């Protein structure tokens, strides 16, 4: 079943069952890698909110969660300058930070966030992204955990929006062009 949001139509791309199964294996992998560390999951709002809720419960370890608000997209396009409007209150010095993103597209948002985090002197900074668009990525930092590599097309659902709509769809949809 396709969905219409404003002027655009979207078709199903990843079902909630496919997402659930991948999130569960990401959680198991992260548990292994962070078992002797002091992890704090740092979710990037708003898009991370669904993925963060599922992923954090799939990692069977003591951990903290925190959030930051970054915004750079207007409609389908990145403004190139992420605005940070919610700052981090937790002390992150010496901590093992895992940035939790719904999507890494051009890579611009995380590039800026990583630079901000360096000043807080964490012990390590890793990234988990549910979705990653290799053909759009313009940087060369590593993305440590990727749920799905996807084509360079706009997607919505499972936290991802088009003009702030579509975040509550349980499946992920891709634009029909
Ligand atoms: O790799 P990039 O090209 O920078 O794109 C990825 C970023 O864009 C989206 O955020 P957006 O600015 O739409 O804010 P939102 O999470 O509130 O939707 C998404 O949640 C990532 O944070
Ligand atoms: Mg958005």
From TrEMBL:
Phosphoribosyltransferase domain residues: 15-162
Enzyme class, UniProt record, top EC level: transferase
Pfam families noted in UniProt: Pribosyltran
CDD domains per UniProt: PRTases_typeI
Protein localization: Cytoplasm
UniProt pathway: Purine metabolism; IMP biosynthesis via salvage pathway; IMP from hypoxanthine: step 1/1
GO molecular function, one term: glycosyltransferase activity
Cofactor(s) needed for function: Mg(2+)
Reactions performed catalytically: IMP + diphosphate = hypoxanthine + 5-phospho-alpha-D-ribose 1-diphosphate; GMP + diphosphate = guanine + 5-phospho-alpha-D-ribose 1-diphosphate
Taxonomy, superkingdom: Bacteria
The protein's Enzyme Commission number: 2.4.2.8
NCBIfam families assigned to the protein according to its UniProt record, in alphabetical order: HGPRTase
Protein name: Hypoxanthine phosphoribosyltransferase
Organism the protein comes from: Algoriphagus marincola
Gene responsible for this protein: hpt
């Amino acid at each position: 079943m396709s969905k219409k949001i404003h002027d655009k139509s979207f078709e199903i791309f990843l079902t909630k069952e496919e997402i659930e199964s991948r999130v569960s294996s990401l959680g198991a992998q992260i548990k292994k890698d962070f078992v002797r560390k002091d992890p704090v999951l740092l979710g990037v709002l708003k898009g991370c909110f669904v993925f963060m809720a599922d992923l954090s419960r799939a990692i069977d370890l003591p951990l903290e969660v925190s959030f930051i608000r970054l915004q750079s997209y207007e409609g389908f396009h990145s403004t190139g300058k992420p605005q940070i409007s919610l700052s981090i209150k937790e002390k992150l010095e010496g901590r093992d930070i895992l940035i939790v993103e719904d999507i890494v597209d051009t890579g611009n948002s995380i590039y800026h966030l990583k630079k901000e985090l360096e000043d807080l002197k964490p012990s390590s900074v890793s990234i988990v992204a549910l979705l990653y668009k290799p053909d759009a990525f313009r940087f060369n930092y590593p993305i440590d955990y990727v749920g799905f590599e996807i084509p360079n097309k706009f997607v919505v659902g499972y936290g991802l929006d088009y003009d702030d709509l579509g975040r509550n769809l349980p499946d992920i949809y891709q634009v029909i062009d």
